[in-house]
Amino acid sequence: MKKIYKVSAVIVLMSSLSSCSIKSTDTKTTVSTATSGTSSSTSSGSSTTSIVGGISCDGVFRDGATRCYYKNIPTIQAMGATKAATNAGIPVWSSTKFTATGTGVSPNQFSTDGTFNVRIIPRKASSSVAAVNQSASGKPCSAFMNNSTKLRVTFRLRQQSASSGDIGTLTSSIDTPSKVWHFSPPSGTTLPFVLEVMTVEADIRCNLSNKTLYCDYADIPLSNPDIGTIPTECVAFDLQYSTDETYDVPGESAI
Q1: How confident is the model at residue 116 (pLDDT cuts 50, 70, 90)?
Q2: Between the ranges 12-21, 78-87, 132-141, 202-211, where is the mean pLDDT highest?
Q3: Tens of pLDDT, residues 151-190
Q4: CA 174, CA 237: separation in Å to the nearest integer?
Q5: What is the dihedral of CA 102, 105, 109, 111, to 10 degrees?
Q6: In b/e form, how buried is each residue of 238-253, taking b as 16+ CB within 10 angstroms?
Q7: Cβ–Cβ under 8 Å, residues 67 and 55
Q8: pLDDT per residue as tens digits for the range 233-252
Q9: Strand, coil or helix: 203
Q10: Which of 28-32, 135-139, 189-193, 209-213 has the lowest mean pLDDT?
């Protein structure tokens, strides 16, 4: 009887251990990625984990920020500034014009708590586009000069109530993104900042037959502003920037 009792006890113990073991089950993991209205998933099993969100910025899926960096400013085309405008410190271009009433663009694009990064991409100027700093009424941009191959653009970022601000300078060749200038926006304001193009210089004079000592960059040649029908040299560039609410502008830092 003792042997029978021992055998029975072993059977009961083994049955108990078997009932306490972890069960092996199939599991399933699903990852969903949404970009531009599309999604994809992979699965195997029964439990589900979902990751949804993010946007495609320049074709790269990124998650976290609310939007890509700003690229909606029309190409800025400029001619040579008059001496009066240069001496008075009149900007070539200002974001206040871009966000003026009726433009359909919110000034809040220029709001930030601490991040404001800018880059340029120089472009070939067009004779069918008016310069943003029209030096004389009716003065067209030249259809045949277009001698610039690279630009140097000076920016200023300031508060609306200020007459001075943070200055940054960028250089690059035609159709080539520049490095990125990282501004340090001043604190203490909830109003949108004002971004201004203060000067635009090019290598035009360096490429003319009567080269000067101004190279690599100099002022853009300007025809007599009193003769409105005579064309003048123009340059153009795209302006792109990022704030706290966007992905950073890609590229190496200029500072």
Answers
A1: very high
A2: 78-87
A3: 999 999 999 989 899 999 999 999 999 999 999 998 878 8
A4: 8
A5: 10
A6: bbbbbbebbbebeeee
A7: yes
A8: 899 999 999 998 899 999 99
A9: coil
A10: 28-32
SS3 66: coil
- SS3 (DSSP) at 116: strand
CA 250 to each of CA 9, 90, 150, 213, 240: distance values in angstroms, whole numbers, following the listed order: 72, 30, 20, 34, 10
Instruction: State which amino acid sits at residue 108.
Output: N
Query: What's the CA gap between 234 and 145, in Å, rounded?
Result: 8
At 214 the three-state DSSP class reads coil
- Reduce the DSSP state of residue 248 to 3 states and report it: coil
Map tokens 């029964």 to a residue. 46
Distance, CA of 60 to CA of 36 (rounded, Å)? 11
What is the distance in angstroms between the CA of the first residue and the CA of the last residue of the chain? 92
The pTM score is 0.74
**Of 95, 51, 48, residue with least CA distance to 74:** 95
How does DSSP assign 183-202, residue by residue?
E-PPSS--SPPEEEEEEEEE
The count of C-alpha atoms lying within 13 angstroms of the C-alpha of 139, restricted to the half-sphere facing its C-beta, is 24
Q: Which residues make beta-bridge pairs with 61?
A: 56
Q: What is the tens place of the pLDDT at every residue in 43-98? A: 334 443 333 456 678 877 776 666 899 998 999 999 988 888 888 999 999 999 88
Rounded CA separation 45/194 (Å)? 55
CB 77 within 8 A of CB 125: yes
Burial of 172 (0-12, 13-18, 19+ CB in 10 A): buried
